[in-house]
From TrEMBL:
Family: Belongs to the PIGV family.
EC number: 2.4.1.-
Keywords: Endoplasmic reticulum, Glycosyltransferase, GPI-anchor biosynthesis, Membrane, Transferase, Transmembrane, Transmembrane helix
Source organism: Linum trigynum
Keyword Ligase (UniProt): no
Protein name: GPI mannosyltransferase 2
């Protein structure tokens, strides 16, 4: 399976990878989008790279100072299938280096390396979706192939996983910055939000063999292209997010809201009722494309684990009307379920997740209170209660820069002193923060998406994973950055939270101690 998927995913990524150059796009309505400038993009890239280097230094430091809690991760029995490419190298040139790399693989990373090497052997391994293992397999057989005789195939797979996730994180940071500039129309807040993302509390997972980096890249990339007017490209990115994590299917909600707004425009504004059917069908197809990778993977598991077995050996989930393997695995092997984690002994884990859950709740309340009419109407009403003629779900409605004002402002700034320039920038930031009604309506679906994920993390999942589960939600960083720019108290609180969790996470997680 991995070999066949490798070619498919490789071609999809090649087609989806953005050029990261300033471009002009045509929106779905045919209007030309105004050229956007991203003055701080290079700084965001440097911050993203610097944060990954910092995490690497911390990991090496803690690994040498603290003994690992569990030393079983290097154990690597032969693959069960004779068709799998086990590649057990006994005569590698640098065995110590290979062992050191393998020792660094902990927690879920062990599953991903095993899947990349041997495929899906056990029922519980189907809880891990195939995008990351496929990319690891591709790199280990291409770019990193010369390293196999030096450190061994399993160590090369591990290096490939680290490379994929750290590179993906840099692109995800760029996408968040571009997305923030488009939606917030404020480069200062967008820059601060992006820097916060680079040093977010779940940073250790973005540099480990986990799916956080790939999911963030595909989700943020999909959002950016959606509001830029490249809807078909956004479909591809959202489909990739569903290949990385199961919650990638939630991104179909953006197409649902977009379709609702477009149907309203066609029926009530353009008076073309017959065209509404075409809009609805197109929206359904886009949602299906987002769901398709997850459905295909569940079908693959059903064929592998359910068909051809004697009736007495068939697993219980195979007999269900809708045989959903993922839900069964989460409940059977990890005890995931509604309120199942509400136990007194889990109180420390609730405390560990309380900062990110509190920040999420504050973000939701902030956007609800700043624009209640727009929020509860899903963007159909403007802040003053009037029906919006154009909506944020349509690419043509993204608020644009007032070009003439910007040109005039830049001309005046050339004659300003440094002190006046700082004062003007401060005034501009405060004005943007005070006028919550100017926030794009696209914040609404982003906030609803985050609210659903926060509720799921609190009531259904192991609550401690909320730190990394919610770390890819843009409204968290938009809200935190606006508060940081508005007051020093919030700034110190957010900075302290990020620093503490980066240090704590790199210490505990890298040494196989429970974190999130």
């Amino acid at each position: 399976m991995l070999k066949s998927l490798s070619k498919v995913v490789g071609s999809l990524l090649y087609a989806a990878l953005p050029s990261l150059q300033l471009i002009m796009r045509r929106g779905s309505s045919g209007n030309i989008m105004i050229r956007r400038s991203y003055p701080h993009q290079s700084f965001v890239i440097r911050c993203a790279i610097a944060s990954r280097i910092l995490l690497l230094v911390l990991i090496l430091l803690w690994r040498n100072l603290v003994s690992s809690y569990d030393t079983s991760s290097p154990l690597n029995p032969e693959c069960l299938s004779s068709n799998s490419e086990s590649r057990q190298e006994w005569n590698v040139l640098l065995p110590r280096l290979g062992s050191a790399v393998e020792d660094s693989v902990v927690w879920d990373g062990v599953y991903f390396v095993r899947i990349a090497q041997c495929g899906y052997e056990y029922e519980q391994s189907y809880a891990f979706l195939p995008l990351l293992p496929v990319l690891m397999s591709i790199l280990s057989r291409t770019i990193f192939a010369p390293l196999v005789p030096l450190i061994g195939f399993r160590a090369v797979l591990s290096l490939a996983g680290y490379a994929v996730n750290n590179v993906a994180f840099v692109f995800a940071a760029v996408y968040l910055y571009r997305l923030s500039v488009l939606i917030l129309d404020n480069t200062q807040v967008a820059l601060t939000a992006s820097v916060l993302f680079c040093f977010n509390p779940a940073s250790i997972f973005y540099s480990s063999i986990y799916t956080e980096s790939l999911y963030s890249l595909s989700s943020l990339g999909g959002l950016y292209h959606l509001i830029s007017g490249a809807t078909n490209i956004s479909v591809l990115w959202f489909a990739l997010s569903a290949c990385a994590r199961s919650n990638g299917v939630l991104n179909a909600g953006y197409f649902c809201i977009q379709t609702m707004h477009r149907v309203y425009d066609v029926v009530f504004l353009q008076k073309r009722t017959c065209s509404a059917v075409q809009v609805i069908v197109l929206g359904v197809l886009r949602c299906f494309c987002t769901f398709a990778p997850f459905i295909a993977f569940q079908t693959y598991g059903y064929f592998n684990l359910c068909l051809g077995l004697p009736l007495d050996e068939v697993r219980p989930w195979c007999k269900a009307k809708i045989p959903l393997l993922y839900n069964y695995i989460q409940g059977r092997y990890w005890g995931v379920g509604f309120l199942t984690y509400f136990q007194f002994k889990q109180l420390p884990n609730f405390l560990l997740a309380s900062p990110i859950l509190s920040l999420s709740l504050c973000s939701i309340i902030h956007y609800m209170r700043s624009q209640p009419r727009m929020f509860f109407s899903l963007g159909f009403l403007s802040p003053d209660g009037q029906t919006r003629a154009r909506h944020a779900s349509d690419s043509s409605t993204i608020s644009s820069y007032k070009t003439q004002d910007k040109v005039g402002a830049s001309h005046r700034k050339k004659h300003m002193t440094e002190e006046d320039n700082d004062h003007s920038a401060s005034v501009e930031i405060n004005e943007a923060l005070d006028k919550g009604r100017r926030i794009s309506a696209f914040v609404v679906p982003c906030t609803l998406h985050m609210a659903f994920m926060a509720a799921t993390a609190f009531f259904v999942m192991h609550v401690q994973v909320a730190t990394r589960f919610l770390s890819s939600s843009p409204p968290l960083y938009w809200f935190a950055s606006s508060k940081m720019l508005a007051g020093k108290k919030w700034g110190k609180l957010v900075q302290g939270y990020c620093i503490a969790y980066i240090l704590l996470g790199s210490l505990l997680f890298s040494n196989f101690y429970p974190f999130t």
